[in-house]
Amino acid sequence: DAGVIQSPRHEVTEMGQEVTLRCKPISGHNSLFWYRQTMMRGLELLIYFNNNVPIDDSGMPEDRFSAKMPNASFSTLKIQPSEPRDSAVYFCASRFGLETATYGYTFGSGTRLTVV
Amino acid sequence: GEDVEQSLFLSVREGDSSVINCTYTDSSSTYLYWYKQEPGAGLQLLTYIFSNMDMKQDQRLTVLLNKKDKHLSLRIADTQTGDSAIYFCAEIGGTASKLTFGTGTRLQVTL
Known about the structure:
The structure holds two protein chains of two kinds. Chain A is 0% helix and 53% strand.
């Protein structure tokens, strides 16, 4: 398996532009998580899905952030409009049900977003 | 809510042992994990321990769990320069479906 695949690896955009981050979870995993990592706040859980349904989006900072999971193999995190304070590394992770509590999550390599 | 705390920085000499500590507040934690993050990379699962265990050893890694004090530690024997990274502890508890991560400890290995 290729693991959790995120794209793009790096994104530089101007303030006010729309940004879309993409994630392909491991095949067969039914839970997907979006995290944001910054120096100031560390790792923050933004939202997670179970069987393509959003379960907890309490970590989404503002209405400018939205996430979708149209099918089991794809998810997007969108920021519209983007602001410089959104600059961070965004990670996607996936997990198969409760059995893999013993294995935690599998993380993607992240998307480094810079908003100028 | 759940809280997981770690010291921010640890420096050790190559060949010495490293001990990274973590405290957590969730008394219903069932699994506790250690993740490693190298520069520019995602988080890689190193090891985990179930809450009814006191210790787990995996090659150079030893995890100790003191459930009474809610204290978790990761010992790396014979620390190498390749061990330089940020180490996160994380816990999942009860019926929760999500991991709670600590703040991360940056391990610097010097020659």
